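Memo to structure team: turn this sequence into structure tokens by end of day. - J.P.
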Amino acid sequence: MDLDVLVTAHRAEWDRLDHLLHRGRRLTGAEADELVALYQRTATHLSLIQSSAPDPMLTGRLTQLVARARSTVTGTRRATWRDAVRFLTAGFPAAVYRSRHWWIPTAVLSTVLAAIIGWWIGTHPEVQATIAAPDELRQLTRPGGQYETYYSSHPAASFAAQVWTNNAQAAAMCLTLGAFLCIPVIWILFVNVLNLGVGIGLMSSAGRLDTFLGLVLPHGLLELTAVFVAAGTGLRLGWTVIDPGPHSRRTALAQQGRAAIGMAIGLALVLFVSGVIEGFVTPSGLPTWARIAIGIAAELAFLAYVYILGGRAARTGDTGDVEEADRSAELPAAA
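Reply from structure team:
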């Protein structure tokens, strides 16, 4: 493509589009139609230049022109309560549902690995000795020891807030760092699994695994599910870098990235619920069966939310991405 010929042929159209944009709302009906037509043609010109003869200055000018035109054509839309309701009842659960083929295997493999680590530590005293001295291990695992008092060592409200903040940060890191070829996500997930496995192994070696599970399960079911969803989505994002599918890598990453950001917000709400359970239910005086029942109820409610609301929304085409009007313009690709 001869860039000079293209510029000579279409410069008048670009100047005319710029003039109409400066007119703002003082356009006649015919001028508004002309603006839309010029916007579409200029977007096509920009795509041709980017793919065939990239020129930084010309590309910058046309990119700015197309962005201004798109804003004028589509208008500025403000978020409303309706957007929040749609996100909670359709967008977020649909995104979690659609990524289930990633986070369910992640959850299964992580749980199996935690159980294996726990068995290995619990049945091998020499491994326990590398973790801490015998006196320190007894302080951790004895009745009233650190594993038990951890959940009641701070006021419930501040403890719940601290737990929520830490878990939300871990989930957000899984979602955002997945683009780095999955490696950071695998590391974050392994650290969480390792901590769980160490607790299982040490408490089982002391004959108190039932106590440990009674403390972990009330909040851990929902908390770990949220972490697995975040990790699975982060892995999916990382795989998009490797295999973007039928879309360009940039478009595929933009789609998955927008959905991941939305999931970070939704999972923060889920982790807030698990933090409240961890702060107020886990250390409470309720019987163990009652505390575990609350944890199971919260987990089943979340799964029903994902599979009923999310499944329904996903079947109607909702991907968890933002509304089409709020996305960046996807320029047509040159043949």
